[in-house]
Every structure is written in structure tokens, then in C-alpha cells.
Amino acid sequence: MIIQKKNKSEWCRKFVFALILFVGCLSNVFASECDGKVTPDAFYFKSERLQFKPILSDAEKNVAKGIWLNTEVQNMSKDFRTDVQLNEILVNGVSSMERFKYKFYNEFENPVINFGIYLENVMIGIFQVSTSRYDEGIKSDVAYHLDPLFWKKGFAKESLKRMVLFIFDVLGSNKITAEIEKTNEGSIAVAVSNGFTKKPNPFAGFDAPTTDFYELTKPK
Question: Distances in Å between the alpha carbon of 131 and those of 61, 74, 101, 137, 141?
Fold first, then answer.
């Protein structure tokens, strides 16, 4: 019986020690995922003419869907998602806010946040940011849609320029990518004018892609 108690006691000590090591390792992993909290105010910002804020309320979501489902916008972007699919995207964007606040990204999940682009308190466009970790750091994928009434006025270029600063400085990404339809000359021009360069399409080996990838790396 004495031997059994001794073995049990030794087993308990080993278990506690292993548990401490596990918690320590878990803390290190969590710390590597969470590089500091982002304050809520950081998600509300301005450029020279525009304001940006997360799409959160039902009213904001309805305006965003109206822009997304606009025939001209869909034909240009080739983004033909349905009302149901857009509802899911917008809901996921709201639930992703906490992940963005804590910079909790990994290679398996891509939290998405949808920003409304505002001109004098009127939503004129949507800017979507999806962020994840990869071998060399943190990467953000972006997409942007404007109401056709506001095309060719420099708003898309101004939006991307301001969002690049937010993504690099606040979200902590070191690379931004945009997948753009080959025929969407306007969006290509916007990306190139903001320093993005064309990169090989990673899906080229699977199909004849209709899109090209554009990339911008954070200056060192």
C-alpha cells in the first residue's frame, strides 16, 4: 500500500508539472496569435473626402446588399452572390470584430470585416478585408465595390489608399492581395495606382482563371 501511495503521489506531481508546461505553451501560442488589442475606435477612420466604419446594423447591411446586388457592380466584379449568401457574409463580418480587435488570426480561419465607405454620411461603397497568417507573417485579402453613381470620381483609389494604411498599421499585416477580374480595368487601375503589382494566379493550374492577383508588401 505504501508503494502504491508513493507511485500515485509521483504520478500526481508529474501530471501537475505536465499541466504547467502545457498552459505555458498554450500561453505562448496565444501570445503569438494576439499581438496586442486593437481599440474599437481604430475601426472608425477618415480619408480626405470619405469616412469608413464597420457594417453592423441591419440598416447598414441592407444598404450594403443594395450596392453588392447592383447589376452593374455584379457584371463588373463577376461577384454574383445571392441575398442569402450576402447575409451570411455580413453576419460573419460582425462576429469577426472580436477576432480583429485581438488580432487573433491563423492559417485556417480568415476573419472578415466589411466596412461601409461613406461620403457625407451616405454609404457609397463596401470594402471587405479578410486576414490570416501565412509563412512570412500576416496577410490581408481585400475587395471593394462602389455604387455606380460614384464611379470615376477617384473614390475607389482614395478608399484603397486609406485602407492600406489601416491594414498595415492597425491590423499588423505585412502583405495585401486583391483578386481582380481581368476585364475590370477600373479596379486594376486603382490597385496599380496604389502600388500593387500583378502576381501569378495560384489557381492557374486548375482552370483558365478569369482573374489576376495583385499584391502590395509593407515597406520595411
Answer: 21, 24, 12, 11, 6
Q: In angstroms, rounded to a whole number, what is the distance separating the alpha carbons of residues 100 and 118?
A: 21
Rounded distance between C-alpha atoms, residue 73 and residue 61, angstroms: 17
pTM value? Answer: 0.77
**CA 53/CA 123 separation, integer angstroms:** 10
Alpha-carbon gap, residue 140 to 105, rounded angstroms: 10
Q: Mind listing the pLDDT tens digit for each residue in 3-23? A: 444 455 555 555 544 544 444
C-alpha–C-alpha distance, residues 20 and 58, integer Å? 45
Strand 137-146 to 175-181 pairing: parallel
At the topology level of CATH, where does 37-217 sit?
A: Aminopeptidase (3.40.630)
For the chain, the domains span 1-33, 37-217
CA distances from 116 to 1, 21, 57, 124, 176 (A): 71, 45, 11, 8, 19
Distance from C-alpha of 119 to C-alpha of 122, rounded to nearest angstrom: 5
Q: Beta strands of the chain (E only): which ranges?
A: 45-46, 51-54, 112-119, 122-134, 137-146, 175-181, 197-199, 211-217
Q: Cell numbers for 45, please give them.
A: 477612420
DSSP reduced 3-state for 178: strand
